[in-house]
Amino acid sequence: MTDAHARVDARSIDTKDDLVAGLDALRRQAAEGLRKSRLSIDDLVKATSIPRSTVHVYISGRSLPPPDALDALVATMGATPQDRRAWQDALERVSARGDSPTPRTQVPRQLPPAPRRFVGREADMRAIAEALASEAHGVAVAGPAGSGKTALVGQYARTHADDYPGGVLYADMRGFSDHPPLEPQRALTRFLIALGVAPESTPTDLEALLPHFRDKATRRMLIVLDNVADAPQVSPLLSVMTGHDVIVASRNEMTALTLRTGMGRVRVRPLPNEDAALLLRGIDASVHDLDAVLRLCGGLPLALEVVRDRAMASGSMLGVLEEIRSGEAPLDTLQAGARGGVRGIMDWSYRGLSAEHRAAFRRLGALPGPTLRLESASVALGTPARQTRRALEFLVERSLLTRADAGAWTRHDLVAAFARERLAAEEPASEVAAIRGRLLGFFSDAASRAVRDHERLVLSTAPAASAGRAERAEAWQTLSQDADTVESVVVEALSDRPRDAWRLAEAAAAAADEHNEYATFADVLPDCLGSARASGDHLAIAAIGLQLGVALIAANDYLPALRVLRGAVSAPDIPASLHVRLLWAQGSAASFAGNDAEAERLLREGLDLETERELPSAERVMALGTLGVLCLRRDDLEAARACSRRIHALPDDDDELYGYTLILDARIHMAAGELDAADDALRRARRVAARSTRTLRSSVLRFAGRLAELRGDLDAAEASYREGIDVASRNALRRPEAELTQALGDLLDASGRPDEALAAYRRSLWLLRELGVAHAPGLDTMKARVARSS
Questions:
Q1: Which residues pair with 142 in a beta bridge?
Q2: Side-chain half-sphere CA neighbours of 244 within 13 A
Q3: Which of 17, 35, 61, 249 has the maximum number of C-beta atoms within 10 A of its C-beta?
């Protein structure tokens, strides 16, 4: 029939002797490269959890194995899914000749092959036990492909097998595989054979099999129906399993089944990192490398199994890590084994969808992140919101998505990667371009509506009518919640529609600035600036450079901000108004970097040029406010008051800017000894801060502390500084934290608490070093104080 080096062909098996010889040849084939002639019985016992004596009976031919035991054995010996089906057909041929399994005196103990390592899942195991203990005595275990459902239900069956006097029955219903689904009558036939019924005595008709099984299964059993396609596949079986505990495992949620039967539900989710790491235990890898692999696998047990197999085969995880670092497609890295790795088992789920739902699934691949939102999903699919919601909910039922909240769904990163592959492979280029065009238009419109001050936009045309406050807030929510998608749309458009990409990036960044979410969309600006430079578009270089510079200032990266802004302001042939705005931004960056003289020069130059020009009022306010602070630093009260008067004369309804103007007023009053007026200004600023940003609140607390010091209330001053430090620290506001900590150090030093003061100075100096600040008020004094203590 075969030799040890040829592929064992089960299709040629007709007799029990053929079956024994075939199993022996398969054992030899599986042992190649292991320095042994064949897999030992102990090897098979360890992999299948079938008792040793029982394995020996099957391998020697003293008794034919039941179908599920044979499947576990040949799978352990490396049979592919196609081969495993051929082995099942061979067993049926042998049984039909009369070489039937002997009647069993022991209870059946059918189990799927045991995983090499089972970790975690304690909560899921408890949930299964609780559901089986309920009145329904059943549970539907659902989860995405590769999430470990079979391992979970198998582990439960192994752990609790002794609780069932009638034994354990297990069937792979092949709902998602390369083979046709297992018909209910074939599953019942296998169960009856496992219960000792001779194959020739089993009816062939489902209607006759059902009562036959009910009569034979008289003692309480655990019945596991694994890899179920849908409820109709198992409904006939459930009708005769009353009195037994039943586990139905499927990639489908089985919502209708659980509602009809009252069965419990357990959803299998990816493993947390601490459990996922245990599956890779024993493989030599640094913590950094292990983190990279865990991010790739996303807690999916099948993906972790592929990585482990590759590492064990090669002796290290080096190959996997090199592919991760080189940007290899994740599903290529996780391609292995007879099932085709993660891509293969996801393809089974995909092929099980209707044409309509396959199209929806792959078109959602145009959205990059793990989170899908109804609005952008509707745009990608080109369908109304109600139809889109139905499609998304159907994909939830198939465990391809997870419901997050009323308007959002999530998916595993590897599911998203598979959707992108299907989009590229199956959709015409024209359809992909149309999807991306719809997304570009949708987000461009949202970004335009989210911007309050359209004078900020250089590359876009202002809308006919500005959006109101509520509409701006709604548009900003659309943008910010889909930030990953917006950035992806921008990057993709840079290749064929660069000017549209620049416009969207500029508007999105301007909206982020206005909503005090400076980091949002900042990551895409360098790509846009590089694209503008490559094209030689001077206006885009200056406009994008301005937005990137402002974002860098907000991120406390002052020196990089100055470099970007200097490059932008040097671009030829840019509008005078844009030139002024770049000067103001440079002045702000120079001020934060501690170069007061350069900052004042740049701000004054811009303010001298801006007269009679249409410029964003918010930027004018910030320029005047920064100049007013610089005037205070050199004790020029009249110049500072002049800046304040110019600000108050401007029409603006921005709460935060008004709050900072009030703080400037309070500082001017404190410098002039007008403490009551300063207190009044700070009270008003505090009311504004209550409905504005944490940055403004930390600033109010800083100068409230300074006012308390001037009034001699040192306890109130310390409390204010410490509250401000807490606000700044919790919100990663490093520059405000440094300034507040420095002020606290000065107060502690003046109060005769030198050790606490030194600790505050050291913290402030560390923060300023991290920010790259080389010059700041009081910086040299702090350095000298710390140096003396050393």
A1: 250, 267
A2: 28
A3: 249
Please say if the pLDDT value at position 720 is more than 90: yes
* Residue 403 DSSP code: E
Type of residue at 269: R
pLDDT surpassing 60 at residue 613? no
Assign 732 a pLDDT band (cuts: 50, 70, 90).
confident
Please, how many CA atoms are within 13 Å of residue 198, restricted to the half-sphere of its CB?
A: 8
Nearest to 46 by CA among 64, 72, 66, 79: 72
CA pseudo-torsion sign 364, 368, 373, 379? negative
Tokens 């009081």 correspond to what residue?
778
Count of helix runs (H) and strand runs (E) in the chain: 39, 8
Least Cα distance to 525 among 556, 561, 558, 559 occurs for: 561
Q: What is the mean pLDDT of residues 175-198?
A: 85
251 contacts 145 by C-beta, under 8 angstroms: yes
Instruction: Determine the pLDDT at residue 462.
Output: 63
Residue 206 is encoded by which pair of tokens? 């489902």
Whether 509 and 490 have beta carbons less than 8 Å apart is answered as: no
Q: What is the 3-state secondary structure (H, E, C) of 84-106?
A: HHHHHHHHHHHHHCCCCCCCCCC
pLDDT (tens digit per residue) in 543-558: 999 999 998 988 878 8
| Sign, CA torsion 60/61/63/64 | positive
- Is pLDDT of 480 > 80? yes
**Which pair of tokens denotes residue 682?**
């700070």
Whether the pLDDT of residue 101 is over 50: the answer is no
Per DSSP, helices labelled H in 178-300 are 184-194, 206-216, 231-238, 255-261, 273-279, 287-297
Q: How far is CA 696 from CA 13, 509, 668, 685, 756, in A?
A: 81, 20, 17, 8, 27
Q: For all residues of the chain together, what is the average pLDDT? A: 86
Using H for helix, E for strand and C for coil, what is the string for 10-61?
HHHCCCHHHHHHHHHHHHHHHCCCCCCCCCCHHHHHHHHCCCHHHHHHHHHC
Predicted confidence (pLDDT) per residue in 43-59, tens digit: 888 787 777 777 887 88
Encode 766-779: b = buried (16+ Cβ within 10 Å), e = exposed: ebbeebebeebeeb
Give the separation between CA 761 and CA 752, rounded to whole angstroms: 15
> For residues 366 and 381, what is the distance between their CA atoms, to the nearest angstrom?
9
The pTM assigned to this predicted structure is 0.72
Cα 78 to chain centroid distance, Å, stands at 35
User: What confidence tier does 96 reach under pLDDT thresholds 50, 70, 90?
Assistant: low
Tokens coding 503 = 């416009």
Nearest alpha-carbon partner for 88 in 102, 75, 76, 104: 75
User: Can you give the pLDDT at residue 338?
Assistant: 45
In the block, which residue shows the tokens 């964003």? Answer: 616
The Cα–Cα gap between 420 and 158 comes to 39
The strand pair at 168-172 and 222-228 is best described as: parallel
> Nearest-5° angle of CA 706, CA 710, CA 716?
60
Round to whole Å and give the CA distance between 206 and 68.
Answer: 20
Cα-based torsion angle of the residue sequence 222, 224, 230, 232 in order, rounded to the nearest 10 degrees: -50
How much is the pLDDT for 464?
55
- Bridge partners, 250 (sequence order): 142, 228
